[in-house]
Design a protein that fits this description.
heterodimer, A: alpha/beta, Transcription Regulator spoIIAA, 3 helices, about 35% helix, B: alpha+beta, Heat Shock Protein 90, 5 strands
Chain lengths: ~90, ~140
């Protein structure tokens, strides 16, 4: 189960398991973003390279316009994945 | 756990259900359970997307013995592929030069103790091993 919730403007929340079969939902949500986006990982339990790829593509597009993706409330397991991928240098992780 | 799965991305949901049961039965800690799901997803999706040929099914074997987790994926009658010599991902590149290619195997290789590709009798066999990190709650 993977779900996206839209709360405040410019903020989305992810919950559940973001695997290769679920990334299209996130891709569509991020494709609509035109400014800096905050993504709340509080309820996200799992991410694989498929999810990282979608985040990377969105970060590239947004940064070209002077914006960024800010990620908050990442659990330790996912934080390890981001570090190994070198994504801790690419995203604003709070 | 030893089971054949259809060689298609839709199998991933069923695979994860099996892995959830495997993790619970073997009382894997959170970190080890995460690794098991990640390694299987990355190997399976690579097989479905990139390996040419092959039959309609892939054999997945996952086992724990004496604190050692072993994951083995066998793709039958497929083309040779030597993942042992795959170029590593440069994680120090700036955003503009990064791309997601190879990231899945990079993650597995960095988290596992060993990752070995073998081509045996026309079958591609990928084996991942990792010593469990966490004590079970027995």
């Amino acid at each position: 189960m993977f779900e996206i919730t839209f709360t405040d403007p410019g903020t989305i929340g992810l919950s559940g398991r973001l695997d290769a079969n679920q990334v299209q939902k996130l891709r569509e949500a991020l494709d609509r973003a035109t400014g800096t986006v905050t993504i709340d990982f509080t309820e996200l339990q799992y991410i694989s390279s498929a999810g990282l790829g979608v985040l990377l593509a969105a970060q590239k597009r947004l940064s070209a316009g002077g914006h960024t993706i800010r990620i908050v409330n990442m659990n330790n397991h996912i934080r390890d994945i981001f570090k190994i991928a070198g994504f801790d240098f690419i995203f604003d992780i709070v | 756990m030893k089971r054949m799965f259809a060689r298609e991305s839709e199998s991933l949901d069923t695979i994860f259900e099996e892995l959830d049961r495997f993790s619970e039965t073997n009382r894997l800690g959170e970190r080890d359970a995460y690794f098991t799901h990640l390694a299987v997803e990355e190997l399976f999706t690579n097989t479905v997307r990139h390996a040419p040929g092959g039959t309609g099914e892939v054999l997945l074997e996952v086992a724990v013995s004496d604190g050692l987790l072993t994951i083995r994926l066998t793709d039958f009658e497929t083309e040779p592929f030597n993942g042992n010599t795959a170029v590593s991902v440069d994680t120090t590149l700036p955003l503009s030069e990064r791309n997601p290619g190879g990231l899945g195997i990079h993650l597995v290789r960095n988290l596992a103790d060993d990752l070995v590709y073998e081509y045996v009798g026309g079958n591609l066999v990928v084996t991942v091993t990792k010593h469990l990190e966490e004590e079970t709650d027995v």
